[in-house]
Design brief:
By secondary structure, the protein is an all-beta fold. The chain has one domain: monomeric porin ompg (Porin). It is built from no helices and 12 strands. An 11-stranded mixed beta barrel has the order 2-3-4-5-6-7-8-9-10-11-12.
């Protein structure tokens, strides 16, 4: 059984990209070791435009532990991120490499047909020769479409909001708002496509996201 997911998003400096509408391809996988332990793996390929103008490649992995069956999980992880940032209003790019350690707590709940997920993440970021820390809060909703008592729906609506806060000025880093449609292929694999707006202190960017979730 294999794990895969592709995603798209955006990084650190103001850019002279050829398009204001980016594309993220995302793969998110989770390997269940036993009833308590799991391994997280993730690949995100982010582009400034539809594809071919790399903005960021993100690789993330971690080891998680279930505090309760399927509802509460703590995870210790590591991420490697390489960013291709435009310099001012020119077509020149610089490469920025980051190593990231993070700790997170995830909580899941159901309210009627709606599935909710809360994720609290604390990151220690080694960006070239600089060290930064950041807090993130993620709230996601998943609602089935055309569900009946006789037939569970494979289609669903998905939405989330994620707030990023730095531990020193400027405290506000960014906020991501996403909405999309998903399809549950089987109990282990689902696909999702959606639109995300990323808000910064003085600017914003829009991205199309294509995401694969795999549990194995």
């Amino acid at each position: 059984m294999a794990a895969l997911t592709c995603v798209l998003m955006l990084p650190y400096v103001t850019a002279a990209q050829s398009s204001d509408f980016g594309n993220w391809l995302i793969y998110i996988g989770s390997k269940k070791v036993n009833s308590k332990w799991n391994i997280h793996n993730e690949i995100q390929f982010r582009n400034y435009d539809a594809i071919g103008d790399l903005e960021q490649l993100l690789l993330r992995t971690g080891v998680g532990y279930n505090l309760s069956e399927n509802n509460h999980n703590v995870l210790l992880g590591y991420g490697y991120i390489t960013s291709e940032n435009y310099v001012g209003d020119t077509s020149e790019k610089i490469t920025v490499n980051e190593h990231r350690i993070f700790q997170q707590f995830t909580s899941k709940q159901k309210i009627g047909a709606v599935s909710l997920s809360h994720r609290y993440r604390f990151e220690q970021r080694f960006v070239e020769s600089d060290f930064k820390m950041r807090l993130r809060y993620f709230l996601a909703f998943k609602v089935p479409i055309l569900k009946t008592e006789e037939m569970p729906s494979k289609l669903y609506l998905s939405a989330y909001n994620e707030l990023f806060l730095n531990t020193k000025s400027a405290v506000f880093d960014r906020n991501r708002v996403y909405g999309g449609f998903g399809y549950q292929i089987n109990k282990n694999i689902r696909l999702e496509a959606g639109y995300m707006t990323q808000l910064f202190e003085t600017s914003s960017r829009d991205q199309f996201n294509l995401i694969t979730f795999v549990n194995f």
